[in-house]
Design brief:
Blueprint lengths: L1 E2 L3 E11 L2 E12 L7 H14 L4 E7 L3 H12 L5 E5 L8 E7 L3 E9 L7 E8 L9 E7 L6 H19 L6 E6 L12 H6 L38 E5 L8 E10 L20 H10 L5 E8 L4 E10 L2 E6 L2 E6 L8
Parallel strand pairs: 3-4, 9-10
Antiparallel strand pairs: 1-15, 2-14, 3-13, 4-6, 5-6, 7-8, 8-9, 10-11, 12-13, 15-16
Helix pairs in contact: 1-2, 1-5
Protein name: Endonuclease/exonuclease/phosphatase domain-containing protein
InterPro entries: Endo/exonu/phosph_ase_sf, Endo/exonuclease/phosphatase
Organism: Crocosphaera chwakensis CCY0110
């Protein structure tokens, strides 16, 4: 659920106090609109990547056979390296693909597969292992998701069906670290019965937890800081996010260790106006975001947590606004934050 107020005092009955090793990972999801296609777009993408600071995993929607190579070039240029690799799913009927780009100096791709049957946009699933990890508890599955767009009843039902296909696949993995990242194209948590959101978050082995509550997200100022579409026109849709399994906040292995950020969106922009009406990033970054794509990237920081983590009763004060992930009797609180660049 999302909490608002000047300051929020929470008694966290099960707050995991964690000891994080010096191994931080930044995962980003972004609908890149089949770009970059030219040098100007590539430079805009590099500007965005540099503002993030480092990208260990990039889950993309709407890439194609040419923009994938340009995206890899932008990643390598932004961070002065040659270590980025990528895999993409098969093209859909319009030539779009989902994809996974990863920094091979920090992540190893253990396996990859794709889901195609019943999906308009094939979903790519990767199994990753942090480089140098000594335990499979740090392995994780990442799904690059792109659900059906549109607001008709048919569109909503198709999204729910697609969510069921992805979720059924995840259920077969057991209790594993799972990240669903991408463009979900949904408007509310009740748009179908069940909705795509409810399919992902229903109980079971592959159950997902979100950084925001259910509700009517479109054109709703209560979810302003979660909106990702469209930075160049009307910021009013919560299409893009990362959903995570409970194993990513169980106190051991790969964990969510930082906050949740929609890059460029700190809630200062006007609802239904361009992202450039706010001050969520420098003017150059906001301009690059608005030029490059009709979606903003979502950034979440993860890390490897040691086995001596401990479960305790604690309380904390969280500045407004905050994000909570709730489930299995524990409440884990993360804040929106200004990201510090990492190299």
């Amino acid at each position: 659920m999302r909490k608002l107020g000047k300051a929020l005092f929470l008694s966290l009955i099960s707050l995991f106090l964690i000891q994080v090793r010096a191994f931080a990972l930044t995962f980003v999801n972004w609908n890149v609109a089949n770009r970059p296609n030219n040098s100007s777009q590539r430079l805009d993408m590099e500007t965005v990547f540099r503002d993030i600071g480092r990208v260990d995993l990039l889950l993309v929607a709407e890439t194609d056979s040419s923009s994938t190579f340009a995206t890899r070039t932008a990643l390598n240029n932004a961070f002065n390296t040659s270590s980025y690799r990528f895999r993409t799913a098969s093209a859909d009927g319009g030539g779009d693909r989902t994809g996974l780009f990863y920094n091979s100096s920090t992540l190893s791709l253990v396996g990859v597969s794709q889901l195609t049957s019943g999906l308009i946009h094939p979903t790519l699933r990767g199994l990753f292992r942090p480089v140098g990890a000594s335990s499979t508890a740090t392995d994780f599955y990442a799904y690059a998701v792109h659900l059906k767009s549109g607001s008709s009843n048919s569109d909503e039902n198709i999204r729910a069906s697609e969510a069921s296909i992805i979720r059924n696949n995840a259920n077969t993995l057991g209790n594993r670290n799972i990240i669903y990242g991408g463009d979900f194209n949904w408007n509310s948590s009740s748009e179908a019965s069940p909705s795509a959101y409810n399919v992902f978050t229903s109980s079971g082995a592959g159950q997902a937890f979100s950084f925001f509550s259910g509700g009517n997200w479109r054109d709703n100022s209560s979810f302003l800081r979660f909106h990702t579409n469209s930075p160049r026109g009307a910021m009013d849709d919560l299409f893009d996010t990362q959903l995570v399994s409970s194993e990513l906040f169980d106190g051991f292995g790969l964990e969510i260790t930082g906050g949740y950020s929609v890059l460029g969106n700190n809630g200062s922009h006007l609802l239904n106006q361009p992202i450039t009406t706010g001050n969520g990033a420098s003017a150059s970054v906001l301009s690059a975001l608005s030029r490059f794509s009709d979606h903003l990237p979502v950034v979440v920081d993860y890390g490897i947590v040691g086995s001596n983590s401990r479960l305790t009763i604690a309380s904390t004060t969280v500045p407004e606004p905050s994000v909570t992930v709730v489930g299995f009797g524990c409440v884990v609180v993360f804040g929106f934050y200004s990201r510090k660049r990492r190299r």
